Amino acid sequence: MEPERVQRRAYSLIELLVVMSIVVLLTGLLLPTLASVRDAANRVISKSNQRNIGQAISLFADSHNELPKSEAILESPIKAGELMRAWTVPEDGFNMKYASWLSKGFDGLGRLFQYQFIDEPEVFYSPGHNGAHRWAEYEQDWQNLRQVWTARVGGHDINPLRAIYTNYHYAGHVYWDPSTGGQRAQQRSFADPYNSVLLSDGMRRSSDLNFEGGLNVLRMDLSVEWLEDWQLVTALPRDGQDAIDSGGHAATIWDIFRRQ
User: Fold this and answer.
1) What backbone torsions phi and psi does residue 251 show, to the nearest 5 degrees?
2) What pLDDT is attached to residue 259?
3) Which of 43, 139, 234, 245 has the fewest CB atoms inside 10 Å of its own CB, making it the most exposed?
4) Domain spans, the chain
5) How big is the CA angle at 55 (ends 51 and 57), to the nearest 5 degrees?
6) 52 has which bridge partners?
7) Which residues contact 13 (CB under 8 A, 6 or more apart)?
């Protein structure tokens, strides 16, 4: 006798469609949750970056008796967007002393790397940043800077020929004393009894925002606070437009750096 054949029942088209529909539905329900979890994790990392930068600034201040100098804040008129600048091509161009040439280019937060208070420049970039000036855009430039700066030799082929921006806004080493109508600069110090902002998420243009709905700020006591602002993105210029300055519709943005 032939063994009884086991009949295998195939899936019907309707059953397959039902299963696929359930999978799509569950995926749709889970994706916002996963995105929210990822955004929360990126905020935590970004806050940690700001604290690390703040601690490096504090160590720099102890060593140099002043905060890292920002050429951008001394420019007239002040362009708040340039406070994200860490390195720029010196105006006098190349010369034979490459280390000297490079040292003239470091600015603001870049001086922390110059004086080795921060060894890994990736800390200057937020993992939540998806617009212009991402870490991947400048990683090779930072590697070139490290190679030339540490070896004190270099060549035109590896020196950066463009400004390097971070994902964070640095308040600068001075502030404009409101008692003088903003005409006189005063040295910013950790000893000052103020709760002013030392660092914030980038706001150079709308694509420079690290997160939707607001930004993290690092205060002079090195505490990090989330400031919710869903209108911020509409107040910032878009790519291709001038970066924010200290006046006009962006005045309230600039005001977060002022003394409180």
Assistant:
1) -60, -40
2) 47
3) 234
4) 67-257
5) 115
6) none
7) none
Q: Which amino acid is at 151?
A: A
Q: Which residues contact 145 (CB under 8 A, 6 or more apart)?
A: 87, 102, 113, 160, 164
Q: Specify the residue for token string 């420079």.
A: 208
DSSP state of 185: E
pLDDT digits (tens, 9 = 90+) for 134-175: 999 999 989 888 876 665 555 555 567 789 999 999 988 987
Do residues 159 and 98 make contact, with C-beta atoms less than 8 angstroms apart?
Answer: yes
| pLDDT tens digits, one per residue of 92-120 | 655 545 556 667 789 999 999 999 999 99
- Residue-by-residue DSSP string for 122-180: GGGS-TT--SSS-HHHHHHHHHHHHHHHHHT---TTTS--S-EE-SEEE--SEEE-GGG
Q: What value, to the nearest 5°, has the Cα angle with vertex 62 and ends 200 and 151?
A: 85
CA distances from 118 to 22, 70, 112, 237 (A): 49, 17, 6, 31
Q: For residue 11, what are its two tokens?
A: 């899936």
Average pLDDT in the 62-88 region?
87
Amino acid 78 reads: I
